[in-house]
Amino acid sequence: MEQIVSEALINSVMAKEAFVKKSQQSLVDLACQMVMTIRQGGKILLFGNGGSAADAQHMAAELVSRFLINRRPMAAIALTTDTSIITAIANDYSFDEIFSKQMQALGKPEDLALGISTSGASVNVIKAIEVAKEIGMRTAVLTGGLAGDGGELGQVSDLTLNVPAAKTQHIQEVHLWIEHLLCELVEKEIFGEN
Q1: Looking at per-residue confidence, does 1 or 63 come out higher?
Q2: Residue ranges covered by each domain of the chain
Q3: What's the CA gap between 92 and 95, in Å, rounded?
């Protein structure tokens, strides 16, 4: 068990280091896009499946409530939380449409769509990014995988932050770290250090 713990720690740190080496500027670019969105009166729409759904909700909570600073709320909505909407769309149309239908209903050109998919292959996340682009929204995605391109999702988004790791758990660990960094960067840029 001790060996498993040691290897997991090493692999997690290596995944973070690989991401920063490859994508630090993309991280800063996304933070700037988020700042611009909030300053222009837009909102951030977040979505993903499974653990990525939990990440979307976690990040929306940090933006709306607070992260490190007591300040006014920032507009963010996780499209993963309304079970009535999700199950109605899945039942009446398809699970592939659960985020794109919400994007059509809630998305405005001044908003930013932030999709999260460990594989970069989640059809419902891809469709939502495509709809967001049709609306004229800024789009960004968090993905993973050694190929480095973010899969099909990375091809349709304006900005892709791909974690170059093979194991899902390490990709997800880095995603949470990225999400916390984004919250900190955005909060400090808009509200300062206090």
Answers
A1: 63
A2: 2-191
A3: 9
- What SS3 state is found at 147? coil
pLDDT tens per residue across span 31-86: 999 999 999 999 999 999 999 999 999 999 999 999 999 999 999 999 999 999 99
Residue 50 is encoded by which pair of tokens?
């499974």
Which amino acid type is present at position 138?
R
The predicted model scores a pTM of 0.95
The runs of H, that is alpha helices, within the chain are 2-39, 51-64, 83-92, 100-106, 123-135, 151-156, 168-191
d(CA 101, CA 104): 5
2-191 folds as Rossmann fold (3.40.50)
Distance CA 152, CA 108 (A): 24
